[in-house]
Design goal:
Distance between the termini: 31 Å
CATH superfamily of the largest domain: Histidine kinase-like ATPase, C-terminal domain
Number of helices: 7
Shape: rod-shaped
Oligomer: single chain
Largest sheet: 5 strands, mixed
Number of domains: 2
Helix content: 40-55%
CATH architecture of the largest domain: 2-Layer Sandwich
CATH class of the largest domain: Alpha Beta
Radius of gyration: 42 Å
Amino acid sequence: MLRSEKRSLIRFLLIYLSSTFILFSIASWLFYVSSKHHILDRQRETLEYEAEHIQTQLRNLHHANTEKLVYPNDPHIKSAIYDVDKHYIFGSFPKAPSLSHLEKKDTLYYMAHVEPYFLGAAYLLVAQAVNDAPIEALQKNIFIFMLIAGIIFSLLGYYLGRLFVAPMRDSLNQMNRFIQDTTHELNTPISTILTNIEMIETFGKEEERSTELKRIELASRTLSRIYDDLTYLNLNHQYHRNIVSLDMGRLVEERMVYFSAMAEAKSLKMQRDIAENVILQIDRNDALRLADNLLSNAIKYNKTGGTLTVTVSSTYFSVKDTGIGIKKENIRMILERFKRADSSEGGFGIGLDIVNQVVHAYGFVLTIDSQENKGTEVRVTWEK
């Protein structure tokens, strides 16, 4: 799956799963609150029944013909009786509770009026600790439900997401087939043109190297670079890298000679600061793609008569131009395939995407510093 497909799929899943999670969370919370109230109401009903039972016992004690009165006691329920002024008379609480402060999260209270006043009691207060077992079971069931629903909706979202990006995949596959066919058709004429130019340069006389021949060479080299880029895009998932010790400074010098015809066509002043013996462990073709794409972009988007500055040090390789520059909001965008900050110049919008792929393959760091109408510097750093 390509990066663009992955980004679209991830965005779809984030929106889909987050909205589903929010809706299910709200529904589960409402269900939990309603069920918890129902559980507590049933426990209060039990408490009311116990209060009626204690009142019956108090009535019996009130009419009993005995000098010894035994207050009704239950190990699971606390109770107390109060007079008409709500003063504590007697009870099984460790400490007599005040009738005006009876709110506790872990305890249920129920106060009943005693009529007539059995044993002088006007009010009966009963209390019982909240039974948390059914509430904990409810929480556990809701958690299991949310977990199973999350797995089901994640799988469903992934399936729907794949359907969502399918048209994009089809379009990209068609484009890749087009690139493959195009590169196949370009290869033969490009090779023929370049071979004949090299033969003329080798065996022909200097005066025979006309302006027209230079133009042919420039166009051929441009076509050759486009062919290499398109071939890399078509094979980047199966590309085998042959890592060697490569002198990056020497390679950049060679590529500057290669692009000298393009630079001369725009009357560019080429400046260089290239250190010796800058050895990298890198595939030669990857190094060529880094150098070629950065140099060709700097030439293409430079101003006529401008300056091109190339630097190779022990820690980085940079190409700086005095061209049109890039808007800050477009810097991240131009690293994506087929995206260009300026459509006034030709190109497929694949150069910096290829550079970005190579940079990530080796763990390098790519930075772009640009100001509109002043120029751009693109730097590849291999040591922090």
